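Quick one, tokens below:
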């Protein structure tokens, strides 16, 4: 089984992209016709695509299995239950701009994939060049940090990954995930006009609710050639039907900014990730530290840092030049490289900042 299939390659590789349960060129063509939100009869769709009404029905079944709701009304035909904007390569490229294309020359757009990170790790293993990116309409196995699922319904949000090769080794990349968060914030500020905050090390939040997540995966040598696959998921218009599957408070861009083009957002995000990684390679985290700190959601707040079974209470005092968390405990500021930060309720903290439970 192919773990992923590109819209463009689907027909070229098999000629029968719509056999089986996977989404292919035929489903894409059908969705493009339904994207206008109007009713289309089976006959009209069949004629337009040059296939039988039975083939249309089969393709619709595959689309429904991907979680896209399609209404069927006798005498009128088929209509999408909710609006959909498919990802479009020309719009992604327009937003990426020519400058961005120099750094991110390859963008694969997939109808479905297990995980865009897994897809790029497979390509990296096969020698894919630095600056290869992929975007998917749907992740069947989207992954978050700490082994969590990343809820990735079809056509609703942005799921993308970027492969970047570094020569200095993975040991020098400790703060790259914070720099990646700066890139995500830049892209979101352009779409939503500000108000986006960062939670150490790289959660992207809006009013304390998760708006985007970043998963960095490294491969290669500790002090030689290595690569990173940077995966970013941004909630754009999460369907209510999937809300219960998200195990934490969340927000989507629709709340902040109304309707947002996923293609344009993805293009801008790839642009900023490319710029940030390019700069990081030359100058490390230093150029991004102040920008990260200016968006720090928990600066001077009482927090708990959880690392495995250990919990440390203190006051968050920003980040070090290496991206470590600065935590003030008993009047002394210590650095931490890993762990998960959460806010403590003011009621559980005494006036001198000491947790009392
Ligand atoms: C987090 O838990 O905060 C990280 C979430 C990262 C999700 C993105 S979506 C694109 C890429 N592919 C994945 O499977 N995960 C990342």
């Amino acid at each position: 089984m192919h773990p992923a299939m590109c819209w463009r390659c689907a027909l070229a590789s098999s000629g029968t992209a719509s056999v089986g349960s996977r989404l292919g060129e035929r489903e894409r063509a059908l969705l493009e016709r339904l994207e206008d939100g109007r009713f289309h009869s089976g006959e009209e769709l069949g004629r337009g695509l040059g296939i039988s009404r039975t083939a249309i029905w089969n393709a619709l079944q595959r689309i429904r299995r991907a979680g896209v709701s399609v209404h069927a009304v006798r005498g009128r035909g088929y209509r999408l239950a909710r609006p959909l904007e498919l990802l479009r390569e020309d719009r992604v490229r327009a937003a990426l701009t020519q400058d961005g294309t120099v750094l991110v020359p390859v963008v694969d757009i997939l109808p479905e994939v297990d995980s865009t990170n897994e897809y790029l790790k497979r390509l990296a293993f096969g020698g894919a060049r630095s600056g290869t990116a992929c975007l998917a309409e749907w992740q069947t196995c989207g992954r978050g940090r700490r082994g969590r699922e990343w809820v990735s319904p079809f056509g609703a949000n942005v799921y993308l990954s970027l492969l970047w090769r570094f020569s200095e080794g993975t040991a020098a990349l400790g703060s790259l995930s914070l720099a990646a968060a700066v890139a995500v914030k830049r892209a979101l500020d352009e779409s939503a006009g500000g108000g986006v905050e960062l939670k150490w090390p790289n959660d992207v939040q809006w009013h304390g609710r998760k708006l985007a997540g970043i998963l960095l995966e490294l491969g290669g040598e500790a002090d030689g050639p290595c690569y990173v696959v940077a995966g970013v998921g941004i909630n754009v218009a999460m369907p209510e039907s999937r809300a219960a599957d998200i195990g934490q408070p969340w927000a989507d861009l629709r709340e902040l900014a109304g309707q947002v083009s996923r293609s344009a957002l993805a293009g801008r995000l790839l642009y900023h990730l490319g710029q940030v990684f390019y700069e990081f390679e030359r100058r490390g985290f230093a150029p991004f530290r102040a920008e990260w700190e200016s968006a720090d959601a928990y600066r001077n707040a009482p927090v708990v840092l959880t690392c495995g079974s250990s919990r440390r209470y203190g006051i968050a005092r920003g980040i070090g030049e290496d991206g470590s968390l600065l935590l003030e405990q008993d009047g002394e500021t210590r650095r931490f490289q890993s762990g998960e930060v959460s806010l403590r309720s003011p009621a559980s903290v005494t006036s001198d900042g000491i947790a009392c439970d």
